[in-house]
Amino acid sequence: MHNTPAKRLPLIALLLIAGGCATTGDRGQPIIPEQYKTKTGPYVIFTNYALPTDDGVVKQLISLRAEVENTLGVHVEPGEHPIEVYILSDRKTYEHFVKFYYPELPARRAFFIAQGERRVVYTFKGDRLEEDIRHEASHALLNLAIGEIPLWLDEGLAEYFETTAPGGENKEHIARYGRDLEEGFSPDLTRLEGLKAVRAMTPRDYREAWAWVHYLLNESSDGRANLLGYIADLHKSTTPTPLSERLRGNPRDRAIALNGHVAKLAKPETIRENQPPATMTANPEPTLRLQNVPIEIEPIEPNPTKKRGFFSRMIGRMLD
Ligand SMILES: [Zn+2]
């Protein structure tokens, strides 16, 4: 699974050159976009439609690079190998492409693949293009700036950077995390660090990874420094001391602190303003990263029949 798709990269390049019916869509356009090539920063974007320089996707990709660099203290330098971003014309074309070239992949709206010096993002022009492209381009930027990153952290950071909401707040994750806790879930960074296979990552694991990243970057007193130190070490070594062994306190206290952090994010703005401010002191193997939401699933609507969720009850208790 990990190896097979990456091995196809050269094959795709070959087919692009050779042409042929399998690479041509309904309207005679090549499935893999090649009509327009837009170079910007560390990226080269391939589309079958004209992409104005003030297009939302171009703006997002440019600002994303700055956000990643400024937040994590890393430097993205593409050199001779820019990140390749392929935006297929529509969902149907994209699904056809994935089925033909990557039949073993689960149906997702976007994915990132890296092998050697090539870093490639595939997605399609759809309603959530900017979010999807931010997620996958985050993987590409991190891979370029740092190299190999543990799966949980790679996904946690991509989830953090995919949203354009202030401070990486992902409302869907915040809402679902409360329900996870109701169902008996307890965060465990050591367990998360043990996940090695992309297919082993469940939607809940993505949420937990996002929550840890958000907590460490924004609230935990020693989290930010430890996370940035860990990322700097990952750049130098493939086996640095795991993050869970660098953080202060025992796992149970850290889990409670993490839940409290997400609970605060779930509070209405008026209540949150009264809280004290968050402490800010603080490859030969190919890499494959999947977008986390199955393609068929629509955005989750809040359940109108449920009056008070876990977080609202917790907030209620905190205010009592
Ligand atoms: Zn991802």
Task: Please specify the SSE layout and strand pairing.
Blueprint: H1 3-18, E1 36-40, E2 43-47, H2 56-72, E3 83-88, H3 91-101, E4 111-115, E5 118-124, H4 129-145, H5 151-162, H6 171-182, H7 189-193, H8 203-218, H9 223-236, H10 251-266, H11 269-272, E6 287-290, H12 310-319
Parallel strand pairs: 2-3, 3-5
Antiparallel strand pairs: 1-2, 4-5, 4-6
The structure holds zinc ion.
Written description of the protein model:
The chain has a domain at about 1-145: Glutaredoxin. It is globular and about 60 Å long. Helix content is about 45%, strand content about 10%. Helix 2 (about 55-70) crosses helix 4 (about 130-145) and helix 8 crosses helix 9. The model is unreliable at about 1-10, about 10-20, about 270-285, about 295-310 and about 310-320 (pLDDT under 50). The chain is of the alpha/beta class and about 325 residues long. Strands 1-2-3-5-4-6 form a six-stranded mixed β-sheet, sandwiched between helices. It contains twelve helices and six strands. It has helices spanning about 5-20, 55-70, 90-100, 130-145, 150-160, 170-180, 190-195, 205-220, 225-235, 250-265, 270, 310-320; strands spanning about 35-40, 45, 85-90, 110-115, 120-125, 285-290. It binds zinc ion (ZN). Zinc ion binds near residues 135, 139, 155, 158 and 289. Zinc ion binds near residues 139, 155, 158 and 289.
